[in-house]
Every structure is written in structure tokens, then in C-alpha cells.
Amino acid sequence: MYSFADPRVELIAHTTLACNGRSPAIEKHMSLDPDAGDMQQLVEFAGRACYQSFHKPNPKTARNKDYIARTLHEQKHWSIAEHATATFYITGVSRALTHELVRHRHLSYSQLSQRFVDESEANIVIPPAADKSQAEVVYETEEFWDDLTGKLSVAMWHWWMDASLNYETVVNALTGEGLPRKQAREAARAVLPNMIETRIVVTGNLRAWHEVIERRTAPDADAEFQQVAGMIRDELKKIAPAIFTD
Predict the structure, then answer these.
(1) Residue 179 has pLDDT above 60, yes or no
(2) What are 70-96's pLDDT values in tens digits?
(3) 190-232 pLDDT, tens per residue?
(4) Are 199 and 94 in contact (CB under 8 A)?
(5) DSSP result, the chain
(6) Is 48 considered catalytic here?
(7) Neighbours of 167 (CB within 10 A)
(8) Closest CA to 80 of 91, 68, 89
(9) Nearest by Cα to 42 from 64, 69, 20, 75
(10) pLDDT confidence of 50, banded at 50, 70, 90?
């Protein structure tokens, strides 16, 4: 059964301090801020290690959030944010989006394999512009090959079903000749559209995530990517609010 997919971003792992957040190694040098989470504490520790300022001599940056505001956001010393990482499981996104996502080389990826997974009943992702469009277009149904008029998103649905039938035709033809399923799907994926859903695990340090979010929430970024980058930012704000702000 085919269905439309909506983007979903799940935070599945992130850096924590040793000993359930009460890291003896850090507390030996620096007092911890009870209002800051593990990731922000680690970033501050890394920054203070550079100058051995663990005693927090400046009252204006004694609090963790103030230290981060000055060091990261004002002075742009983002290298210290590379010590903390976050991992997401992202689903309900298109292959078009992940083709852009993987350009960010400081992130690490593990993506659904189209060579191994059967894509004949995969979900599809309608681009935001087409999903919001009220335009009516003419399209052919695969059942009767009649010209019908309907919403653009519905037309894209029917175009995907045609692509799915072509995919199955190629898979069946090649497996019928004795080719293993993995190799048959490898060849058949050539007919799949960019709007097919994919799923991907992505890990990055906080500097890398900040750069991705800053770039991909910009008005000229891909509309689907804008939405997903905003969702990632919202998740990161829960665990590192001083680092990821609006």
C-alpha cells in the first residue's frame, strides 16, 4: 500500500559526561553549572582548557550560557563545539534531500540501501511547493489510461505508481533470468524518482550541525531541507539551548 511520508527527526544518541554527568575529571578542574546540560559543559571545558581559565575569572562569563554566548556566538570559536556529537534517525524524507545532505562532509551517514531493500511499495515524499499547490493538472491513470484532471500532488502520486510498476517489471525480468534479487534491484532503482522516501542515520559534532542548520534554514535553501533542518534544530535546542538558538 502506497502512502505519503512526512518527515520525522528522532534524536537517538548524544554526548554525555562520564559518571552520569558528574565527571570527576572535569570537576577536578572546573565547577559544573547546574543549569547547563552535558554537551554545553563539555564545550565550556574544552574552551577553558585552551587558556587554563577553569577558575572562571570573568564574572560575565562565569555561567555556562554566558561563556558559550561569548565564545561561540560572539567570538566565533566554534572548534570547541566539535567535541560533542548528536545522532539522528531521519525518516520520511526524499532521496533528493539526502543527495543534498551528504554534501556536508563533516557528518557521518548510514542510509537505507536501494540495492537490498524492496522499493516496490515505498512511500513517497511530495515536495512542499507541490503539496501546497492548488493547481490542477492532467494526468493518466495506470488502470484505464484515461486523462484525468486533479491536484498536482495527486498527479505525482499516480506518476509514482507508474514508476513503481516499471521498477517491479525490471526486477521480475532480471530475477526471471536468474539474477540475484540484490543485483536486480540495483538495476531497477534506476527508474525510481527522487521523491521516493529514504531513511538515514546521521551523526555530527555540534559545530557541523550548527553549520548545516545555519545554511539549510536560509530562505534560498531547498524547501524540504529547510523543514527538516528546522526540526533538527528544535531537537538540538532541547539538549544544548545555548548553542542552538533561533
Answers:
(1) yes
(2) 999 999 999 999 999 999 999 999 999
(3) 999 999 999 999 999 999 999 999 999 999 999 999 999 999 9
(4) no
(5) ---B---EEEEEEE---TTTT--HHHHTTSPPPTTS-HHHHHHHHHHHHHHT-TT---GGG-SHHHHHIIIIIIT--GGGGGG-EEEEEEEEEEHHHHHHHTT-TTSEEEE--TTTS--TT--B---HHHHH---EEEEE-TTT--EEEEEHHHHHHHHHHHHHHHHHHHHHHHHHTT--HHHHHHHHGGG--TTBEEEEEEEEEHHHHHHHHHHHTSTTS-HHHHHHHHHHHHHHHHH-TTTS--
(6) no
(7) 25
(8) 68
(9) 64
(10) very high
> In angstroms, rounded to a whole number, what is the distance separating the alpha carbons of residues 102 and 3?
25
Q: List b or e across 191-207, with b for residues whose CB sees 16 or more CB atoms inside 10 angstroms.
A: bbbebbbbbbbbbbbbb
The cell for 135 is 493547481
Q: Which of 95, 189, 216, 233 is catalytic?
A: 216
Spatial distance between the Cα atoms of 246 and 232, rounded to a whole number of angstroms: 12
Look at residue 133 in the predicted model and tell me its pLDDT.
87
- Mean pLDDT rounded to a whole number for the chain: 92
Sequence-distant (6+) residues with CB within 8 A of 99 are 194
Average of per-residue pLDDT across 115-126: 92
Strand partners, 150: 137
Q: Grid cell 547546574 — which residue?
A: 34
